[in-house]
Write a structure and sequence with these properties.
Layout lengths: L1 H19 L23 H32 L5 H24 L8 H16 L3 H29 L5 H23 L8 H21 L1
């Protein structure tokens, strides 16, 4: 474990400097799709609801990308590297899709993206320094939080008008299923074996709840 930690530190140090010198947030790119998955809002209340929903979903996917980037900065050359990269590739697709949706609907992203840029990378890298088990424990905690968040959105949209939000529900359900798969992958790869697993998981999920709450509004 000490050798893995020292190796992780050696890989993390130069990458951290480069990452932190490039804290720019990528611009939203308008998609060439002919229509959006979001129906035209009926009134200001619906517009506000959808904006908050899309803003926090985009922030969550952005943060998840930064977490996997941090993990890969430490574990890229380890046996876990390909698995983490595979999960990260899926998160990249999620973020790209929400970038499109926000641009299509003229929804501003959260003003806290620069903070999530740093916080996500640090969380991913610091837990990866604990070894594969630490990275997987982080994955389980974060993906469980995102899954629960998506489930709450699905319930809310189903209660309001499932036919009106058919396409949005399809996107959220697809991404929710991917997050559940990542969660299960973490458990399958020894997440629960790290000492202090439940304490680490609880702390990370508390942070996720705070991030979700503030990203909706700011």
């Amino acid at each position: 474990m000490q050798q893995a930690t020292h190796a992780g530190l050696a890989a993390f140090a130069p990458l951290t400097i480069r990452q932190f010198l490039k804290l720019t947030v990528p611009p939203l790119v308008v998609s060439s799709r002919c229509h959006s998955v979001i129906p035209p809002p009926r009134d200001s209340d619906e517009k506000e609801m959808l904006d908050r929903m899309l803003r926090v979903d985009h922030a969550g996917e952005y943060g998840a990308n930064r977490i996997y980037a941090g993990q890969m900065s430490v574990l890229r050359r380890s046996q876990s590297g390909p698995l983490i990269q595979e999960m990260w590739n899926q998160e990249k697709k999620h973020l790209e899709r929400f970038n499109e949706i926000l641009a299509e609907n003229r929804v501003r992203p959260t003003a806290l993206l620069p903070l999530w840029n740093i916080a996500g990378f640090v969380l991913g890298a610091s837990t990866a320094l604990l070894g594969k088990e630490g990275a997987m424990a982080c994955t389980v905690a974060v993906e469980e939080s995102i899954t629960e968040h998506y489930n709450s959105q699905i319930r809310a949209l189903m209660e309001k008008d499932p036919e009106r939000y058919t396409e949005l529900l399809q996107v959220i359900k697809e991404f929710r299923d991917d997050e559940m798969e990542h969660h299960d992958t973490g458990l399958e790869h020894d997440a629960e074996t790290i000492p202090g697993y439940w304490l680490l998981k609880t702390a990370i999920q508390l942070g996720c709840k705070v991030a979700i709450s503030v990203s909706q509004r700011i």
